[in-house]
Structures are given as C-alpha cells and as structure tokens.
Automatic annotation (TrEMBL):
Pfam families: C1_1, RA. PROSITE patterns: RA, ZF_DAG_PE_1, ZF_DAG_PE_2. Its EC number is 2.7.1.107. Residues 222-255, 312-340 are annotated as: Disordered. The lineage of its organism: Eukaryota, Metazoa, Chordata, Craniata, Vertebrata. One of its GO terms (cellular component) is membrane. The gene is DGKQ. This is diacylglycerol kinase (ATP).
Length: 484
C-alpha cells in the first residue's frame, strides 16, 4: 500500500503506531481478516499491522516493538532448518513467507531469516527452572498461520486466513479463536484432549544446564548458522521489515545502510531503509528506529554519518576506526547535510545523567510486574537491589541473599549474567546501547535470590558384595573414592 495521510494522534493500544494510508491493491484486515473496502486503511509503521478504522479500538495484539516487554518468562525458540512454508506469514514483519524461512519446532513460530533477531522470546515453557509460582496453567497463544478450516471456539465462525496473519491458537490445548474472541475464554488451559498424556511444565525440572534446549527436544542443530541467520542477518541487505521484495530504483529516493551499534558495525550487519532524498533529519531518524523496531522517543537518539572509509575497509580496520572516534567527527554534521549524503549511518542513544530502570522480581507471585528505579552515576547493582527489595516488600529478608541479574532475551538463547555488587549500573546501560540498541530493547534486569545450586550426580556402581547395610556400603564407596 502507498503510505499517505497523517499519523493518528498519540500511541495506539498495544504499542502500535497507526496512520491512515491509501490502498492501491486488495488488502485485508489483520484483526477480522475481512477485505478492506474503499481506499483507506490504517497501517502500523513499525510492524505492518493493517486494520479497518472500525477495528482499531479492538486491536489487542502487541506491536513487535513492545512485545518483548510483555513477556512474563522469557523462553528461547528452537528453530529448525530452513524450509518452504506455503501460505504462512512472518510473526515479526507480518509479511508472507515467499522464500525459505524458519519455524520454531516447539511453538510453531514462523519468521524470515533476517527477522529472527527481532523475534520475541516467548516460546512454550516446557519445564520449570525454579519453585512453582503459578496456581494454574494459562493458554500459550500463538497468532496466525491457522488451518484453512479453523473455526473460532467462541463464535464458531471461521478464524483462519490464508491472506493475512490473523486468529490465535493455544500451543498447549489447540483451541482456536479470533483474537477478540479469545478474551471470552477462560485463561486457564486444561491441555485439551491430551490432558491425560501431557505432563504440565510445573512437573518438570531440569537440574543440569550443560545441554542446550535443542538437545533436550531432540532437534538437530547445524554446526554453523546458515547465511542470513546471524544476529542481524548475513549482510542486512533485505528491506528493514517492509517485505522481502527489493524496491524498484527511484531517483527521488535514496537507500541507506543503518547500523545499530559497534557490534553490528564490526560484523557488517545492517538494515536497509529507503527515504526521500529531501527527507528531513527527523524523518530519517524515525525510519531508522522503525527498521530496528525501536518504539522509544526519537528525541533520545541520533543518527551519526559514517564516512566511506569506515564501512569499506576490512572488518578489523573498521572496528578500530570506529573506536578511534573519526565516525563521530564525521557524523557531527548531522543527517541533514545533503551535499554529500553518506550511504551508511549508525544509530546512537543520547547519554543521560540519570535513567528510570525497570527491575523485575525473579519470583512471579507479586502484585506488580516490575518496579521503576531512578539510576544515577552513583547507583550500583547493590544499591539498586536494596531499593527494589524495599519497593517489593522484602527488605526484611536480608539484601545479602539477593543479587541483580542481567537477562538478554534473545530469540535463540536467553543469557543470564550476575552483576557484581559494586558495578556502576548507568555505565552498564551505556555500554549495552553502544554495543547494540536492539540488544538493549531485549535486556531486562531481575532481582533474584542468590542460591548456590549444588550439582547432583547419580551413579550406578556394580560389583559390590551382597548383604551389607547402607552404612557399610557407604564406607566402601568412601574408601574407593578416597584412593582416587
């Protein structure tokens, strides 16, 4: 569709940024899956969600840019090898999968290879890492890609669509419904017809983390990621979330490479945006943020131009040049300079003397999802833990038994890092943003109990004499181990 008109005032529900567009080809609503009659529709500039005007107030599906912040327990996906999936749609950019794509073998999430880094880590949680915090098991909804004959559990009307990503299905019990109708269903999942055969996740606990989730589910892993399946794709040459097709050359527009941090620059991983040649600096910045699904205030970011010498030399030299500061000097002209517009830019977050940081409790049975804490240059991991415990009502339990964990919610792997007590937190946030803005949007901080987990190993010992007591057997084993 051809974009036109003005943006709807204020952010829409579920984090979408809708604006009125003029439709030039047959288009369907992503909520009701009906045809949009007329020339006007409403499109989210970030995730490409298309809607009737009458359906806007009913949209509950979160935008790709805010979906990671709504995940309760981050769980990485298990993507199998690339394959062709007819009449399927990407869960990130909502475009059709016309080329070989990836599918999670556990929760049936479908994505383009270059959309994998932006996929939300909301896979099915098939085992419990800690103590039980839930009294009931809830539905695990996955949007779209339903069978053609799928019918809504509530209204009994067709809820599947081969034209757009519409409808939802629980990955546990298999119940299917319209996204609007799903709110009328009981939130508790009963595991459907296989309830007598399914072992609930709260009944399964893995005591060892020495093997991957792919190994746990017996999913074959390739020795190395295929081309295009890196952190941001192989070369980032695909349009940034606006489809797989390459736009036709247009003399009135220009194509720019956008890097989101030092890591992308060193790996040569970029996203491509197309903007008018006379675009203002603010328009270029907003387009670059949309390319990385960043929905924060554009006033907190800036675009810095990269001179040709930075992004044409070899990988190692480029990294050293960027670190030396020449890119910042070149970028000081700002993206508004039209006489020699560079083809490569890097997104940077503007530094702040203080920030509001969301701290999540590692235990789930609390009245709030997170607490906000003001982080200053004097804030450390220990001071943040003390403030968080006070707000969560657990200050009497002793702060020495808690720690601050940094959790990177990647689509392929969820990484946890325990921060040192005296580590300055504001510097930590700046370092993450310098490395990758996308990584910052997928990073959370948890206050968790610092429990020392002792490994448990079960051994089978043969050749022992018969008829001894447990104490005598223990003495024999102690003597045998002592000699080793």
């Amino acid at each position: 569709p051809e974009r036109a008109g003005a943006r709807t005032p204020g952010p829409a529900a579920s984090g979408h940024s809708f604006r009125k567009v003029t439709l030039t080809k047959p288009t369907f609503c992503h909520l009701c899956s009906d045809f949009i009659w007329g020339l006007a529709g409403f499109l989210c500039d970030v995730c490409n969600f298309m809607s009737h005007e009458k359906c806007l107030k009913h949209v509950k599906t979160p935008c790709t840019g805010v979906a990671p912040s709504l995940v309760r327990v981050p769980v990485a996906h298990c993507f199998g090898p690339r394959g062709f999936y007819k009449r399927k749609f990407c869960a990130v950019c909502r475009k059709a999968l016309e080329a070989p794509a990836l599918r999670c073998e556990v929760c049936e999430l479908h994505v383009h290879p270059d959309c994998v880094p932006f996929a939300c880590s909301d896979c099915r949680q098939c085992h419990w890492d800690g103590h039980r915090d839930h009294d009931a098991h809830h539905h695990h909804w996955r949007e779209g890609n339903l069978p053609s004959g799928a019918r809504c559990e509530v209204c009994r009307k067709t809820c599947g669509s081969s034209d757009v990503l519409a409808g939802v299905r629980c990955e546990w019990c298999g119940v299917q419904a319209h996204s609007v109708c799903s709110a009328a269903l009981a939130p508790e999942c009963t595991f459907g017809r296989l309830r007598t055969m399914v072992l609930p996740p709260v009944c399964v606990r893995l005591l060892s983390r020495n093997f991957s989730k792919m190994h746990c589910f017996r999913i074959s892993e390739s020795a190395a990621p295929e081309q295009g399946e890196g952190d941001d794709g192989a070369d980032g040459s695909a349009p940034a979330g606006l489809g797989r097709e390459v736009p036709a050359p247009d003399s009135s527009k220009q194509t720019l490479k956008i890097f989101d941090g030092n890591d992308a620059l060193q790996r040569n991983h970029f996203r491509v945006i197309t903007v008018p040649r006379q675009a203002r600096s603010q328009e270029m910045l907003e387009a670059a943020l949309r390319a990385y699904y960043v929905t924060e205030d554009p006033c907190d970011f800036e675009l810095q131009a990269l001179p040709p010498s930075v992004h044409t030399v070899d990988m190692g030299t480029r990294g050293r040049t960027r670190a030396g500061g020449s890119a910042e000097e070149e970028g000081s002209r700002g993206p508004g300079s039209r006489e020699s517009a560079p083809e490569a830019w890097i997104l940077r977050a503007l530094p702040h003397t203080q920030e509001d940081l969301k701290i999540y409790p590692a235990w789930l049975k609390v009245g709030v999802a997170y607490v906000s804490i003001r982080v200053t240059p004097r804030s450390t991991a220990r001071t943040v833990v003390l403030e968080a415990l006070l707000l969560l009502g657990r200050q009497a339990e002793g702060p020495e038994s808690f720690q601050l964990e940094e959790v990177l919610m990647g689509s392929r792997q969820v990484q946890r890092t325990v921060l040192e007590d005296e580590e300055p937190l504001l510097n930590r946030l700046r370092d993450i943003r310098q490395t990758s803005l996308r990584q910052m949007t997928q990073t959370r901080f948890y206050v968790a109990e610092s429990r020392a987990v002792a490994p448990r190993v079960s051994l089978y010992v043969a050749g022992l004499p018969f008829g001894l007591s447990a104490q005598e057997y223990g003495s024999l084993l102690d003597e045998a181990v002592a000699t080793k």
